[in-house]
Write a structure and sequence with these properties.
The structure holds 2 protein chains of 2 kinds. By secondary structure, chain A is mainly beta. Chain A folds into 2 domains: 341 residues, no CATH class; 55 residues, no CATH class. Chain A contains 4 helices and 17 strands. Chain A has a 17-stranded mixed β-sheet that branches. In chain A, helix 3 packs antiparallel against helix 4. In chain A, 52% of the residues are buried. Chain B is an alpha/beta fold. Chain B has one domain: Rossmann fold (3-Layer(aba) Sandwich), CATH 3.40.50. Chain B is 35% helix and 31% strand. Chain B has a 6-stranded mixed β-sheet with strand order 6-9-10-3-11-12, with helices on both faces. The radius of gyration of chain B is 18 Å and the shape is globular. The chains are: A mainly beta, B alpha/beta. Chains A and B meet through helix 2 and helix 3 of A and helix 2, strand 7, helix 3 and strand 8 of B.
Chain lengths: 399, 254
C-alpha cells in the first residue's frame, strides 16, 4: 500500500510561499511532464520571455544574455583545475564522444545553449572497481567573462568516488554536468557555489544512476548574483538510489534557484531530497522546485522530498514548489514537505533576554537550522568544512 | 546588595488608534533576598511591567526610571539587561527551531558569565539542575520550546533561572497552566534560587495558589496600570477571600 503524504508549507512570514501539493491548484511544471522538450540544439528552444512555467521565477534580465543567444563566450573566462588520485583518467574530449550527452539531453534553453557552445568537454573517469581514498577536486575559478562548459564524470561499475567541485570568482557561466554512475557504483558529489556577488551561473546536472548504484549530491550555494541549478536524476536500472541534499544562503539581492527533477522510470529505486535555505536582506530570493515523477512502470519506488526555508529578515522571498506526480499505486512510499519559517522578533527577544547578543542569536539559529542537514549528509570529513563555510557566511553577513 | 528601583514608570503600546498607556506610574523597590508578589486582575498591566523591565521592543517607556544598583536599566539593550542580572521567566516562552536546549543553555551561560563554563563542571551542573526539576536528560537535545508541553516550558524557564543566577528574577505567571505536581516542582526550583539569598524575586500572578509554595515577603495589588495596595502576606489571604473586586470598581482597572 502506498503511503502518500503531503505536508503543505506553513506560511508565517511576509515572504511569499507557494506550495503546490494539491492537484489542480497549480499548473503542472513542464519538468514533470514526460513530453517536456529536450534537445541538444539551442535552436529547438524559443527564447524564454519569463512567463513559462520553468522560467517564471528567474530574473531573465540578470542572466547577462545566457538565455537569448547574446552572451558570447570570451577566452579565459574560467580557469578549471582538476586534481585526482592516481588511476583516475582526467582528459578533454570532443563533443562526438559517446559519453557526452549520454546522461540526458538539455531541457531548457540555457542548458542547450551551453551544449551548443562549449569547446571541449571535460572528462573524469573512475575505472571500474576503483575505491578512491581521496576525493577528486575540480575547481572552477571565474576570471570575468562568459563561458560555456561541459563536464562528464564517469564512475565504472562497483567503483566508489567522491568529487568536490568548487566555484569561485566572477563569471557568466552556463554548463552541463553529467554523472554516469555504473552498476553498483557509489558516487558522492559536493558542488559548492561560492561565487562573488556579480557572478551568473546556470547549470543542468544530470545523473544517470546505474543498477544498484548510489548517487549522493550535496549542493551548497552561497555566492553569486543569479545561480540557477537544475539537478536531474534518471535511473538506468533497478535498485538505484539517489540522495540529493542542498543548502543555500541568500543575501540581499541574490537570486538562488534550485530546480530538482527525479524521474522514477525504473522499478525499485529510491530517492530522498532535502534542501534547506536561509535568506536575509531586501530582495533575497530563493526558489526551490522539487519535481518527482513516478511513472507507471516504476513499481516499488520509495521517494521523499523536503524543503525548509528560514527567513531572517523582512524583504526576503521564497518560492517553494514541491510537485509529486504518481502514475502507479504500487509503490513503497512517496511524500513531500515544504515549510518556510521566520526568525522573528519574539525569538530574538527570547534569546537576547538570556544575555545573548542579537547577532550571535541569529547565528545560533541559522547554524542550528543547517546543522541538522549537515549531519544527515553523513560525510564526517565534509561536515566540518560545511559548518566552517556556513560560519564564514554568517560572520560576513549576519550582524 | 542588588536593588531594583522602579520610579513612576509609564509605558504605552502602539494600538490601532495611536499609543495606549498601560502602565500609569509604577513605583517599586525590590532588594536582593526579597520576594514581592504582584497580584492583579487580567488586563491590569502586570505582564506589561514584566516585559518592560526585560526590554521587549513592543513597549515604549514614556516616563520614569528603572535602576539596578544605580545603573539605568532602560538605557540597556535586552541582552545587556540580562547580563546585568535581570531575568524574565516568560508566561509564553518562544520556540526557537534548530537550537537545542543544551546549546542554548551553554550559549546563554557563556554570555551571562562572561566566559564559557568549563565543560566538565557545566555538564554536571546542567544534569543536576535538570534532575532537581524532574526533567528527562533527553530534553537537552530537543529544540528550545519546540513541542514542549506547558509544564515542560515552565520547568525549562526555571532551569535557566537556576543556571543563570540572576540578581533580579521576574516570574510572569509561572504558575499558569501547571497542574499541582508541576507547580510544586517548579516552585521548589524557584525556592532553591531564593534560598541562596542572592536574588530579588518579582512574582507576577493572577492566583494565590503559587503563594502556598513560594512565600512572599511583600504583596502588591496591581490594578489600572499601577500598584494600588501593598502589604505583607496577609494581603494575599484577603485577595483569596474577596477577590479583586474592591480594587477594580470605579474603573481603576481597564
Amino acid at each position: 500500500m502506498a503511503d502518500v503524504t503531503t505536508t503543505p508549507g506553513g506560511a508565517t512570514t511576509s515572504g511569499s510561499i507557494k506550495v503546490a501539493g494539491v492537484p489542480g491548484e497549480f499548473s503542472q511544471p513542464a519538468d514533470a511532464r514526460s513530453e517536456a522538450l529536450a534537445s541538444y540544439d539551442v535552436a529547438d528552444f524559443p527564447v524564454p520571455h519569463g512567463r513559462e512555467e520553468n522560467w517564471r521565477f528567474t530574473p531573465l534580465h540578470r542572466l547577462k544574455g545566457l538565455h537569448d543567444g547574446t552572451a558570447e563566450a570570451t577566452s579565459g573566462a574560467i580557469k578549471v583545475d582538476v586534481t585526482a588520485p592516481e588511476g583516475v583518467l582526467v582528459t578533454a574530449v570532443e563533443r562526438d564522444d559517446a559519453r557526452v550527452g549520454a546522461a540526458g539531453k538539455p531541457v531548457d534553453r540555457v542548458a542547450a545553449q551551453a551544449f551548443s557552445s562549449f569547446g571541449k568537454a571535460g572528462l573524469v573517469s573512475v575505472p571500474k572497481d576503483a575505491q578512491l581514498t581521496e576525493p577528486i577536486r575540480i575547481t572552477i575559478h571565474g576570471q570575468g567573462g562568459v563561458a560555456y562548459g561541459h563536464q562528464v564524470i564517469e564512475v565504472g561499475a562497483f567503483a566508489e568516488a567522491v568529487v568536490v567541485i568548487e566555484h569561485t570568482g566572477d563569471a557568466v557561466l552556463a554548463a552541463n554536468v553529467e554523472y554516469l554512475i555504473g552498476d553498483g557504483a557509489k558516487l558522492t558529489v559536493v558542488s559548492v557555489q561560492d561565487w562573488e556577488d556579480t557572478a551568473v551561473h546556470a547549470a543542468q546536472h544530470t545523473a544517470l544512476v546505474g543498477r544498484d548504484a548510489s548517487f549522493k549530491s550535496v549542493i551548497v550555494t552561497l555566492g553569486g548574483d543569479v545561480v540557477r541549478l537544475h539537478p536531474r536524476v534518471i535511473y538506468g536500472g533497478t535498485g538505484g538510489e539517489a540522495e540529493l541534499y542542498g543548502l543555500y544562503f541568500a543575501d540581499a539581492g541574490q537570486h538562488l534557484e534550485h530546480r530538482l527533477f527525479v524521474d522514477h522510470d525504473t522499478p525499485h529505486c529510491r530517492s530522498n531530497v532535502a534542501y534547506k535555505g536561509a535568506l536575509q536582506g531586501q530582495d533575497a530570493h530563493a526558489v526551490w522546485i522539487g519535481d518527482v515523477l513516478i511513472r507507471a512502470e516504476a513499481e516499488g519506488t520509495d521517494t521523499y522530498e523536503l524543503n525548509r526555508n528560514l527567513l531572517l529578515t523582512d524583504g526576503a522571498r521564497v518560492d517553494s514548489v514541491p510537485n509529486l506526480e504518481i502514475e502507479t499505486g504500487e509503490i513503497v512510499g512517496a511524500g513531500h514537505a515544504s515549510a518556510t519559517g521566520r526568525f522573528d522578533d519574539e525569538q530574538l527577544f527570547y534569546l537576547q533576554s538570556r544575555g545573548i547578543p542579537a547577532d550571535e542569536a541569529r547565528r545560533l539559529v541559522v547554524r542550528g537550522f543547517f546543522a541538522e542537514l549537515v549531519q544527515q549528509i553523513g560525510l564526517p570529513e565534509l561536515q566540518e568544512r560545511l559548518i566552517e563555510k556556513i560560519d564564514a557566511e554568517l560572520e560576513a553577513s549576519v550582524g | 546588595m542588588a536593588t531594583l528601583e522602579i520610579r513612576d514608570l509609564h509605558v504605552s503600546v502602539e494600538a490601532e488608534n495611536g499609543p495606549r498607556e498601560i502602565l500609569k506610574g509604577v513605583d517599586l523597590v525590590v532588594k536582593q533576598g526579597e520576594t514581592h508578589a504582584i497580584m492583579g486582575p487580567n488586563g491590569s498591566g502586570k505582564s506589561t511591567l514584566a516585559y518592560s523591565l526585560a526590554g521587549h521592543p513592543k513597549y515604549t517607556i514614556t516616563s520614569g526610571t528603572v535602576l539596578l544598583d544605580g545603573e539605568d536599566v532602560l538605557a540597556m539593550s535586552v541582552d545587556e539587561r540580562a547580563r546585568a542580572g535581570v531575568f524574565l521567566a516568560m508566561q509564553y516562552p518562544v520556540e526557537v527551531p534548530g537550537v537545542s536546549v543544551s546549546n542554548f543553555l551553554r550559549t546563554s551561560a557563556t554570555a551571562i558569565r562572561g566566559e564559557a563554563p568549563k565543560l566538565r563542571t557545566w555538564v554536571k551542573e546542567v544534569k543536576e539542575a535538570m534532575a532537581d526539576l524532574q526533567m528527562d536528560p533527553a530534553f537537552a537535545e530537543r529544540n528550545v520550546n519546540e513541542g514542549f508541553s506547558g509544564g515542560e516550558k515552565k520547568r525549562h524557564e526555571i532551569l535557566q533561572m537556576e543556571l543563570l543566577k540572576p540578581k533580579i528574577a521576574i516570574l510572569d505567571e509561572t504558575d499558569s497552566g501547571l497542574d499541582v505536581d508541576a507547580l510544586r516542582v517548579v516552585s521548589e526550583g524557584v525556592n532553591r534560587v531564593r534560598e541562596t539569598g542572592e536574588v530579588g524575586t518579582l512574582l507576577i500572578t493572577h492566583y494565590t495558589r503559587i503563594l502556598r509554595y513560594i512565600k512572599p515577603d511583600f504583596v502588591h495589588v496591581f490594578a489600572g496600570g499601577k500598584i494600588v495596595a501593598s502589604g505583607g502576606p496577609e494581603l494575599a489571604d484577603q485577595l483569596e477571600e474577596n477577590g479583586y473586586e474592591q480594587y477594580v470598581k470605579g474603573g481603576a482597572a481597564e
